[in-house]
Amino acid sequence: MRFFLDKFTIALIVAILIASVLPVQGQYADWFGIATKIAVGLLFFLHGARLSREAVVAGLVHWRLHIFVLASTFVLFPLLGLAAGWVVPGLKESVFYTGILFLCVLPSTVQSSIAFTSIAGGNVSAAVVSASASNILGMFLTPALVGLLFAVRGNGISFHALESILLQLLAPFVLGQLLQPLIGNFMRRHHKALGLVDRGSILMVVYLAFSEAVVAGLWHTVSWSDLAVMTGVDMVLLALVLLITAYGSKWLGFSREDQITIMFCGSKKSLASGAPMANAIFAGQNVGGIVLPLMLFHQIQLMVCAVLARRYAEKKRQFEKNEAAKAPVKV
C-alpha cells in the first residue's frame, strides 16, 4: 500500500482545481446535480449488493471487538469533535467546523480497513464484519448524529435532508441488499470495474460541491489560518483515536490480532460514504467547505495507517524469525 498521493487523491485535487477555475453554474449545474444524484444512488446500490450477509453473521462471535470499534467510530470521534470546538480557539467560528463534526459521525471505511488489517497481520474476518457493520449502521446513525450534534449547536436536520437520505441513499442500499443473493457474487468478482462507479460518483459530488462553494465565494471567506487549523485538528483527531484504540484494546485484554483490527477499523472515516451523504444532508449549504476536512482526513489516515501497517508487519516477521531461531534443530 503506497502512502503517498495515489491516483484517486490526485483526481480529487484536480476536481477541486477545475471547480475553482471553471465551476458549473446555472442550468448546467441543475443537470449535473441530477446526474450526480443518479450516480450516488447507483453507488449505494452497489454497496448494498456487495456486502455479504454470510460474512456478517459468521463474524458476530467477536461482539466485544465490534462494540469497541462502533463505540470508537460513533461515540469517541463525536466527543472528540465537540471537545475540539471548546479547546481550539476560534474553531467554532471556522467555516470548516461543520465539516469536522460531520467527519466525526461518519462510518469507517471498508476496503482500506481490511487491507491495512491484513498487511499488519490482524484479524481479517473480524475486520470485514466490523467495517461492514459500521457502514450499514452508518446509514441510520450518521443522519441521527448529525441531527443531534447540530441541534446542540442551534441548527437541525431538515425534512428535505431526511427525504434525500431515504430516497437517494437508503432505498438503493436496501434494494442492493435484497438483490445481494442474486447478484452479490457477480459484484464481488467485478469489483475493480465497478470501483469506477465508486470513484466517479465521488468525483462528481466533489466537483459539484466545490463549484457551488466557489460560486458562493468560498475562497474569499477562507483564510490560510483556517486551513492550518483544520489540518491540525484532523491530525490530532486521528492521533488521539489511534492511541486510544491501540492502548484501550490492549488494556481490555484483546489479542494482538484483535488489537490491530480495532485500531485500523476504529480510526477510519469513509470518504466513499461521506461525500454523497454530505451532498444529501447539507443540500443548499456550503457542501464544499463541509467535505474538505473529510478529504484531508482521508489522505492523512491512508498515509499514517500505511506506515503503521508496515511496522506491525515487520514486527510480526521479526517475531516469527526469532521464534524459528529458538526452535530446536532436528538431527
TrEMBL record:
It comes from the Bacteria. Keywords: Membrane, Transmembrane, Transmembrane helix. The chain crosses the membrane at residues 33-51, 63-88, 94-116, 128-151, 157-179, 200-221, 227-248. The keyword Coiled coil does not apply. GO terms for cellular component: plasma membrane. Gene3D superfamilies: 1.20.1530.20. This is Bile acid:sodium symporter.
